[in-house]
Amino acid sequence: MHLVDRSRPDPWVPADGPRQLMVSLWYPATAKKGTTARYVTPEESALILRGVPGGENHPPDTIAKTRTHARVGAPPSRRSLPLVVMSPGFTFPRATLTALGEDLDSRGYLVAAVEHTYESVATTFPDGRTTTCVVCRQQQTDELGARVAKVRVADISFVLDHLLKRAPLGLRIGKIAMVGHSMGGNSAAHTMAADQRVRVGVNLDGTFLPEAPTLTRPFMMFGTTTGHSPGGRDTSWDSAWPHLKGANQWLTVTGADHSSFTDPPSLTMRSSANRSASPPRPSPAPAQSKSPAPTWRPSSTATYATSTDPPQTSPKSYVIQGDSCSSRLVCQRRRG
């Protein structure tokens, strides 16, 4: 969806006029009708690869060849659905949350992933123009981070206004939750404080900036063991915990890094596996050659450790072995 918020100018490039956002929707469908939804556009793929080490060794449209499970315009299986709105990390396109979005919609949720224009490395609009990360050119300070969070709160509230009034395909929205990665997770907490319609929030490995607000509704902090265990490197989680007064949880994932909650690590592993299966070459493939399209494959050896104790106590944990992905773990914990 292409949405235009005519009540405010774009906060990063005011000369562009009203704030414009791209939003991807996933929902349970009755049949495999319609064309397969694209992962990213070729232009977005090229810009993403430009910032990836070794990306120059791939054709520019490589990431655009990633296969998804969604179909465009497929008939919904039912009209009334709970909504999960998703916010990606800073510089991350919304497409990097595709696996999580598809998993949640397969469990009966309407999912809306919001692209925060000029904060993403690449955003293509229906008119064909592709914007880049203008905010990345600014000095990265705490003050800028707080401003980014404020902009995202306004973006999410505008998207909720639109969906509640004019949801596509006759969909009716029930209860609302928000999940975000990195800056998106930080923004989930601040959105809950500003917008009472969001009843549940999840922060996937995001630093709280500014400090976390006081929340009385359920909120989950879900991060890496190295960075976000109680007493870990990111002290903002320890500071936030006393302010989370609802039915809250603090979980960590053993062996994960910051991007493990998104698609790129699995896409990278799959693409690397495809390359390693090919005969060795003395030089990089020529630009016109075709490399295998990366696909999403959940890991079959993931280990998850979780903790729900306050920071001042020693965490108790349990381990899940197998092909569980982060969204499944969240679902299991929520549904008890």
From TrEMBL:
Biased composition (Polar residues): 255-269, 297-316
SUPFAM superfamilies membership: alpha/beta-Hydrolases (SSF53474)
Keywords: Hydrolase, Lipid degradation, Lipid metabolism
InterPro entries for the chain: AB_hydrolase_fold
Region Disordered, residue ranges: 255-324
Residue ranges of coiled coil: none
PANTHER family assigned: PLATELET-ACTIVATING FACTOR ACETYLHYDROLASE
Descriptive protein name: Alpha/beta hydrolase
Organism of provenance: Acrocarpospora corrugata
